[in-house]
Amino acid sequence: MRDFDYAAPASVAEAVRLLNQSPGSGRPLAGGTDLIDQIRLGRHQPEVVIDIKRIPELNILELSSRGLRLGSAVPCCRIYGDPGIAVDYAALVDSARIIGGIQIQSRASVGGNLCNSGPAADSIPSLIALGARAVIAGLNGTREVAVEDFCTGPGKNVLQRGEVLVELRFPPRTAQSGSHYRRFIPRNEMDIAVVSVGASVELEANGDRIRGARIALGAVGPTPIFAREASQLLIGKAPGPEAYDLAAKAAQAISSPIDDMRGTKEFRRHVAGVLVRRVLEECVQRARQRD
């Protein structure tokens, strides 16, 4: 590993200033569970690593009637350790529980997972399904980007040089809503999704129709995918196998998986349909249990 300088700013403004003092050669560090390996392997060669984990705004975890605010440096263990989040944002908790082991979860952050922008990242389908928006800070102030628009390619995203992800904001949940995240992996030793699905549904007050839905796919394209058309097909439908099958087929149609050591295109597309059906079924069950 090459030598690098280390800085630990105490504010977002200071972090942005440090990143802009070394454009292209500074890297922010939240948990570091990916970054340290990337530096060791030579994928990144920063002159300075900027530790943002001490910045208060990046450590906010606030659940209120206005929704959820999740700082980009909040470790996974704080997310699934909150009973309110576990009920209202269950898909996010599903993801946080399986990002590495317990030691990793005490360091790794959902914000860092998003910024790493891997096509098979476990948190991103859940973020999309729950309608999260990314709050980004730079020299020109802050801006917001819907998470479904955040990733632009494998390992690439909308962050410009000198910008930092501050937090993720989620809209409030209703009593008739439920969400779930599930992935397929070939074995426990290979902890990377072959296919993953995150979804959220909102039922009508009497529970007999679907009022709203969001479905997201992972590991079946160069970026996680918001299956917008598949989601829209569910609106107004009665929850059940017929509706789930329609959404599954629509989701399969927009997937563009590759062949690799983890699975073939055909296998991945098939599994995507299976997972969409199972995840939607669990979403509806959770929504009815909450209600």
Kindly describe this structure.
With 291 residues, the protein is α+β, with helices and mostly antiparallel strands. The protein is 34% helix and 25% strand. The chain has a 5-stranded antiparallel β-sheet. A hairpin with a 6-residue loop joins strand 12 and strand 13. Helix 5 runs antiparallel to helix 8, helix 9 packs antiparallel against helix 10 and helix 10 packs across helix 11. It is globular, with a radius of gyration of 19 Å. The model has no long low-confidence stretch (mean pLDDT 94).
Descriptive labels:
4-stranded antiparallel beta sheet, 25% strand, 34% helix, 5-stranded antiparallel beta sheet, alpha+beta, 291 residues, single chain
